[in-house]
Every structure is written in structure tokens, then in C-alpha cells.
Design a protein that fits this description.
Chain B: Keywords: Signal, TPR repeat. Chain B: InterPro entries: TPR-like_helical_dom_sf, TPR_rpt. The complex is a heterodimer of chains A (151) and B (273). Chain A is α+β, with helices and mostly antiparallel strands and 151 residues long. Chain A has one domain. Helices cover 19% and strands 28% of the residues of chain A. Chain B has three domains: 76 residues, Serine Threonine Protein Phosphatase 5, Tetratricopeptide repeat; 68 residues, no CATH class; 97 residues, Tetratricopeptide repeat domain (Serine Threonine Protein Phosphatase 5, Tetratricopeptide repeat), CATH 1.25.40.10. The chains are: A alpha+beta (151), B mainly alpha (273). Chains A and B meet through helix 2, strand 3, strand 6 and strand 7 of A and helix 3, helix 4 and helix 5 of B.
Chain lengths: 151, 273
């Protein structure tokens, strides 16, 4: 049965908030003072822009025959702290009809590790004060191949 | 374009006020939903307070489009496309005018060219060929239909929508800021280099300092075997990109036909020192 967000019993302080989970998140990942903003409000980016980010991901993505039935979208959402380090990775998966699904676990692990290995982030904010921000990478998948990466 | 912007500046507050004038609703359910919507948009987008008020608005009237749409936006921006789509589907079912926003976002955020085109074509048919503008105001949605077809490899159909839209705008003397650029790149992809150059030169008249256009002009001359002219265009693109001009950039997503400095430098590097 499809989840209806308009009938939710509660909402996070802000849509998309990621709270610390000791089971999955690094205890040594530190946020700087202040809130966690959205990437588009602070200008958080990757060295060389989206083009460099995509080139890296496409170069290191390794297709396997076990992925051949994977068609849909995978969003990997995470935090870039003010020191341009990343953690708190969360994964959302939907099929080509925008319904929730669960793809091959090895594929999701591979994609998540790829995102975790990106290490040329440029923290947003001002020169005087860099900010913590949320960022996401959305992978459009067709039969196990990456067709598009946004934003 | 200047007149268009002025027109928008003068008209927008009136339009917004008209859109949220809850007294226009004669039935209690819509009026209550509207009043709660108005309270919700006073809070930060995506905040708990605002989402709870949208929830109450939709309890009052489950098909109230403005609340469905506004409640969906933070999910879109934060990459939760499941919840965004669920809400926008309900908005579209309530009123097909929301096809404009759903179709535009399917293009911009999801690169779902087929479903974006389907939405915009449905709206195009309903609106007798005038589907309106993208929510950021940059594009007549016929240009997005054309881009969708281009990204699906259907250059002829893409050019049909480009030409129809641009001819319409030329008559009204308000061609979109990037329309000739995208038309030119489409001609370039279709290997009509002379056609592409004509379009891109028109773009330089429209937006003289846009670096991206000169990069594509350089590619056209290169394809036509005119390296000297190509190099001149790449040098101009680099100067505009790094010093005196502008380049395509958007805080949310990579733009269609966006050029990076590394693209320009790679082409210049091929000429040697």
C-alpha cells in the first residue's frame, strides 16, 4: 500500500532532515556550529562542478549482470560539513513508475560507497564562515546502467 | 524581454493575491483549505509548522491543488521524489493545470524526458498550443517539449516544437533568453552546422555576454573545418566565462547545454600553444 505523506503522524523539523544514527554513521564526523542548510542555498559544490562529479561516478561505476533488472531512480542523500567532509548517507529507491522499491543490495552498496568516495567537495557558505549542508545525488538507472545523474 | 520582466513585476503581486484570495471560494471545504494554505506559506518551506498546516488544509479539502503543490516542493528539492510525485499526481488529478509544474520538474530534476513530454503535450493540447511557462520563468514549456524530444534523439520533432514556439515569440517580440541557444545546439547535434551558426549568432544578439553560445559556435566552426574561426570563438568563450561575461548556472541543477570552463579549455588545448 502506497504511503500517504498527508496522513503522517508527525513531520521532521525540516523535510529531509537526517539525524545521527550510531548504527550507520561515523561518530567522528563532526558538524560545525550552526544548522545544516540545503546545498542550493549555500552554494555547496564539487571541485570542477557537476561535470567532474559525474565523470568520477561514471568512471568508477562497475556494472554487473546481476544489476540488469534495475530500472528506476536511486537518491543518495548525505551531509557535507563545513570542512567538506561527508557522512550520514541515506538511500531512497523508486522504480520507473515512481513507486518505492528495493534494488539489489550489492548494487546499492556499490553506489553508496561510490558516493562516499567522492572527496573533492567544496563546502558552501561564505569565506569567513563555511556551512554544513545537505546534498543529494540522484541516479537514473536503466537496466543496471547509469543514464543520468542529477542535480 | 525587458518589457516582459516589467510586466511580470507589475502583474505578479496581483496574480498571487488573486490566487490566494480565499473569498473567491464559495464552498466551505475549499475556503477552509485555502485559509490553512495561506497560514502554511507564512512558515519556512518544508518546516514542520508548514507541513502540518498543509496537512490540515488537505483534511479540509483533499483535492486542494495549491496545498498539494506547495507541500510537494520541499520533497522535490531534497531528492525525495516518491513523496513529491505522490502529491503532484493528486494535484494533477484535481486540476490539469498542475501538469505544467509536474512536467517541468520531471525534466529539470529527474531527466525523465518521456513522462515530462507526455505531461506537457497533454497540457499543450488542453491549452490549444499555449502551455505556459516553467515555474522559474526561464522557458516557454514548448521549449521544454522540444528539449525532451532532443534528449530522446528525435531531432525532427524537437525542431518542430522549437520553430513553432520561436516563430510565435518572434511575432510577439519576446523570444526566450536561451531559445536560440538550444535551437542552435539542436541543429549542431543534427549536423546542420550552418543552421546552428545562424541560430547561435541570433543568441549572441539576444544575450551578448553568454560564454556558452561562443563555445558552441566554436564547435560548429571546428566541424566545418574552420579552425581559425573556431579558436576565436573558444577564446571569446573563455574570456566571457572567466572575466567579463556570464555562463549558464543554476543553484538547483545542471542546466541544459550548460558549458564548463574545462570544456572550453579542453578545446583550446587541442590547438596547442
Amino acid at each position: 500500500m502506497a504511503q500517504d505523506i498527508t496522513k503522517a503522524k508527525s513531520y521532521p523539523e525540516q523535510v529531509g532532515d537526517i539525524t545521527f544514527d550510531p548504527k550507520t554513521d561515523r561518530a567522528d564526523f563532526k558538524l560545525c556550529d550552526g544548522d545544516i542548510y540545503q546545498y542550493y542555498g549555500t552554494g555547496t559544490t564539487y571541485k570542477g562542478g557537476t561535470k567532474a562529479l559525474k565523470q568520477y561516478l561514471l568512471k568508477h561505476y562497475q556494472y554487473k549482470p546481476a544489476y540488469k533488472n534495475i530500472t528506476g531512480y536511486v537518491t543518495v542523500r548525505f551531509v557535507v560539513n563545513c570542512r567538506a567532509q561527508t557522512d550520514r548517507f541515506r538511500v531512497l529507491q523508486i522504480d520507473e513508475h515512481y513507486q518505492k522499491t528495493t534494488f539489489n543490495a550489492g548494487f546499492i552498496s556499490h553506489l553508496t560507497k561510490l558516493c562516499q568516495s567522492l572527496n573533492n567537495w567544496v563546502a558552501g557558505g561564505t569565506d569567513q564562515r563555511k556551512a554544513n549542508t545537505y546534498y543529494y545525488l540522484n541516479f537514473k538507472m536503466l537496466r543496471g546502467r547509469i543514464k543520468e545523474i542529477t542535480p | 524581454m525587458r518589457y516582459f520582466i516589467l510586466l511580470l513585476l507589475f502583474c505578479t503581486p496581483a496574480l498571487l493575491k488573486a490566487q490566494t484570495n480565499c473569498d473567491l471560494y464559495t464552498d466551505k471545504a475549499h475556503k477552509n483549505a485555502c485559509l490553512l494554505y495561506q497560514q502554511a506559506i507564512e512558515y519556512n518551506q518544508g518546516s514542520r509548522e508548514s507541513q502540518l498546516l498543509f496537512q490540515r488544509s488537505l483534511q479540509a479539502c483533499p483535492t486542494f491543488g495549491p496545498s498539494l503543490h506547495e507541500m510537494s516542493v520541499p520533497y522535490l528539492k531534497q531528492g525525495d521524489f516518491y513523496n513529491w510525485k505522490q502529491l503532484m499526481d493528486r494535484a494533477v488529478n484535481a486540476d490539469p493545470k498542475w501538469l505544467a509544474d509536474r512536467g517541468w520538474c520531471l525534466f529539470k530534476f529527474l531527466r525523465d524526458y518521456q513522462n515530462s513530454f507526455n505531461d506537457l503535450k497533454r497540457l499543450y493540447d488542453i491549452a490549444k498550443g499555449q502551455p505556459g511557462y516553467s515555474s522559474d520563468g526561464d522557458y516557454d514549456l514548448r521549449i521544454i517539449m522540444a528539449l525532451n524530444q532532443r534528449y530522446m534523439g528525435n531531432y525532427n520533432l524537437s525542431l518542430k516544437y522549437f520553430k513553432e514556439c520561436i516563430a510565435d515569440h518572434e511575432k510577439k517580440n519576446w523570444v526566450g533568453l536561451y531559445d536560440y541557444l538550444h535551437l542552435g545546439v539542436t541543429h549542431l547535434l543534427a549536423q546542420d552546422y550552418k543552421g546552428a551558426i545562424a541560430d547561435l549568432q541570433r543568441e549572441t544578439k539576444k544575450y551578448e555576454k553568454l560564454a556558452d553560445t561562443y563555445y558552441y559556435l566554436g564547435l560548429c566552426y571546428k566541424k566545418m573545418g574552420q579552425p581559425k574561426k573556431a579558436k576565436e570563438q573558444f577564446i571569446k568563450a573563455k574570456t566571457l566565462f572567466t572575466k567579463t561575461g556570464y555562463h549558464r548556472n543554476d543553484p538547483y541543477c545542471e542546466e541544459p547545454d550548460q558549458v564548463y570552463l574545462s570544456d572550453i579549455e579542453r578545446e583550446l588545448g587541442k590547438f596547442g600553444r
